[in-house]
Amino acid sequence: MKKAAAILLLLSVFLGAQAVTATRIDIEGVASKMEFTNLSTIGGGTLLNHGWDKVNGKYRLYSELPLASNAWKQVGIKFTPVSNGEITLILQGKWQQADDKKTLLILPVYYDQVEIQGAVLKNADFEELDEKGMPKHWSPPAPKGNAGDFRVVKDKTKVKSGAASVYCWQEQRLSQTISVKAGTPVTITAWAFPGR
Predict the structure, then answer these.
(1) What is the pLDDT of residues 133-153, one digit of tens each?
(2) 166: β partners
(3) Can you say whether residue 153 is alpha, beta or left, with left for phi > 0 and alpha for psi between -120 and 50 degrees?
């Protein structure tokens, strides 16, 4: 079963390959029942509540932020939390199915130089790594054992600043929990580069 899933995943890369034109920076506030106001983006795109989640959608924000073709672009989101609490910042790629409507396309994005105003983010440039080579203070996904796995990248052509960036997509997200205060606007920006 795992082998079949890996083959389908690789087929989605090669057969469903297409240019990566957008990325996502999402916010999860379900655990603290966090609602948000004053939603906007930096660099174009959209930031909305999850409409598909009828129960907890008002506690979740998703974005679709346009990328530059084969170049780094600063993208970002702005919001104001309604209450004090913890939220989860999620870096990932755009969600898109292949033409067969069964396979999720791998639309990877490199992230670097994440910055935040209105809250504290640790190891925002991914330079501090743990003993496994993963970014400290971030929660990386479990590896799936294929070419689409999340990874820390040290190839200078895929790093905006410093020595490392990260490679993410929809099913291989990187996240960090941060504390926010009621009424304090939060701005999160990141430099993003299309993974293909």
Answers:
(1) 999 999 988 877 776 788 999
(2) 111, 152
(3) beta
Instruction: Report the amino acid identity of residue 118.
Output: G
Could you state, in order of their start, the residue ranges of all structural domains in the chain?
2-194
Overall residue count recorded for the chain in this entry = 196
- The Cα–Cα gap between 145 and 6 comes to 8
DSSP-derived 3-state class of residue 6: helix
**Stretch 161-172: mean pLDDT:** 91
pLDDT band at 103 (very low <50, low <70, confident <90, very high): confident
Q: Which amino acid is at 21?
A: T
Give residue for tokens 């082998």. 3
Q: In what order do the strands lie in the sheet with 186-194?
A: 36-42, 73-81, 186-194, 109-117, 165-168, 151-153
Match 């008002």 to its residue by tokens. Answer: 58
Dist. CA 166–CA 109, nearest whole Å: 8
CB contact set of 63 (below 8 Å; sequence gap of 6+): 24, 25, 26, 41, 45, 46, 47, 48, 77
